[in-house]
């Protein structure tokens, strides 16, 4: 049991208290599924619609809410890919690479190595900010649930699972696509509209596929076997984006991405663009930091916290299908409190508990 592990807060090792929790704190799944989440703040009965959320209370963690910067980031990544592809040297590079290794090896090993390298590089940066107190002090004002930090034991558990999923799910699925839907690796590189269109076509498949598979695995008959593991972290860390069962990794995380790729069969460079962009997105949205300039982490963080809302990656289908009502109500309430300079009781309690 890791739930007894000490939690590092502000340089001191503390035992978990009512307000400082490890990530393995057991959650009453049935109560959550029924919407009866009881966040007992400092032992007091809640005062807001039967419950007092201890989530995104720092106004600084909401600066990035619905920001345009994440769209700038997305367009920037797409444009960078387009720009690189337009350089004459890039065409020569692809021809030389294909001549040397062959299209299959680039599709298979190139995809796996590049996507894994991007995932680990950014994930380790987030991990450093989680585990090093000096680095953490620079970003803690953007932390959505600042009273929750993971332990080394929990991180080890997550990293083992990440490696397992990358080897036993990602690799075979990439092999399948490389074998039966091999992508072009020649110097016949796509222009702007194709790059843009493929990205948003893939994004549409991802939004729809992830949303509906995710709702399905929240069904009581599937939840315990497939998805419960991913919800072990109510305040996740970046690497926890791949902390899930093999089945979830196949059907929820990788399946929808590959469907878009197989339907459109773009140039290999566009598959790498989409993979890396989604990886950056999922690492940011699981990081529990809502840092301006990066992807808005509030949407998915709320899903881990509140469990019954925000099933999609972008929030679009949640808006359309109304699966984010409490989320919107709580954000509106926080904005109202910001406007009034309202001091949250849980913040005061937290400050007391961590002094
Ligand atoms: Zn879920
Ligand atoms: Zn998640």
Automatic annotation (TrEMBL):
<protein>
    <recommendedName>
        <fullName>Fatty acid hydroxylase domain-containing protein</fullName>
    </recommendedName>
</protein>
<dbReference type="GO" id="GO:0016020">
    <property type="term" value="C:membrane"/>
</dbReference>
<feature type="domain" description="Fatty acid hydroxylase">
    <location>
        <begin position="202"/>
        <end position="323"/>
    </location>
</feature>
<feature type="transmembrane region" description="Helical">
    <location>
        <begin position="68"/>
        <end position="85"/>
    </location>
</feature>
<keyword id="KW-1133">Transmembrane helix</keyword>
<dbReference type="InterPro" id="IPR050307">
    <property type="entry name" value="Sterol_Desaturase_Related"/>
</dbReference>
<keyword id="KW-0812">Transmembrane</keyword>
<dbReference type="Pfam" id="PF04116">
    <property type="entry name" value="FA_hydroxylase"/>
</dbReference>
<dbReference type="InterPro" id="IPR006694">
    <property type="entry name" value="Fatty_acid_hydroxylase"/>
</dbReference>
<feature type="transmembrane region" description="Helical">
    <location>
        <begin position="106"/>
        <end position="129"/>
    </location>
</feature>
<dbReference type="GO" id="GO:0005506">
    <property type="term" value="F:iron ion binding"/>
</dbReference>
<dbReference type="GO" id="GO:0016491">
    <property type="term" value="F:oxidoreductase activity"/>
</dbReference>
<dbReference type="GO" id="GO:0008610">
    <property type="term" value="P:lipid biosynthetic process"/>
</dbReference>
<keyword id="KW-0472">Membrane</keyword>
């Amino acid at each position: 049991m890791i739930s007894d592990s000490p939690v590092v807060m502000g340089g001191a090792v503390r035992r978990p208290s009512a307000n400082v929790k490890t990530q393995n704190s057991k959650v009453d799944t049935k109560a959550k599924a029924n919407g009866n989440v009881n966040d007992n703040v400092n032992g007091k009965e809640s005062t807001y619609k039967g419950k007092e959320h201890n989530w995104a209370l720092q106004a600084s963690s909401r600066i990035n809410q619905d920001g345009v910067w994440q769209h700038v980031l997305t367009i920037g990544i797409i444009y960078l890919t387009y720009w690189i592809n337009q350089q004459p040297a890039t065409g020569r590079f692809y021809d030389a690479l294909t001549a040397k290794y062959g299209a299959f090896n680039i599709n298979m090993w190139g995809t796996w190595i590049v996507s894994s390298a991007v995932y680990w590089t950014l994930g380790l940066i987030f991990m450093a900010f989680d585990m090093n107190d000096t680095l953490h002090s620079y970003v803690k004002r953007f932390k959505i649930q600042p009273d929750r930090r993971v332990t080394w034991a929990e991180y080890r558990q997550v990293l083992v699972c990440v490696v397992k999923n990358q080897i036993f799910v990602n690799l075979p699925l990439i092999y399948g696509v490389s074998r039966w839907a091999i992508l072009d690796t020649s110097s016949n590189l796509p222009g702007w509209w194709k790059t843009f269109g493929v990205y948003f076509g893939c994004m549409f498949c991802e939004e729809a596929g992830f949303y509906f598979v995710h709702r399905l695995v929240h069904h009581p008959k599937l939840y315990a076997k497939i998805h419960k593991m991913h919800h072990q972290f109510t305040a996740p860390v970046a690497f926890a984006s791949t902390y899930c069962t093999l089945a979830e990794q196949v059907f929820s995380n990788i399946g929808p991405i590959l469907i878009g790729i197989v339907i459109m069969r773009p140039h290999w460079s566009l598959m790498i663009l989409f993979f890396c962009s989604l990886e950056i997105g999922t690492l940011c949205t699981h990081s529990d930091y809502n840092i301006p300039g990066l992807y808005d982490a509030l949407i998915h963080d709320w899903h881990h916290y509140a469990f019954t809302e925000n099933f999609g990656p972008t929030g679009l289908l949640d808006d359309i299908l109304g699966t984010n009502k409490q989320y919107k109500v709580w954000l509106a309430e926080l904005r109202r409190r910001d406007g009034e300079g309202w001091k949250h009781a849980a913040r005061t309690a937290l400050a007391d508990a961590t002094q």
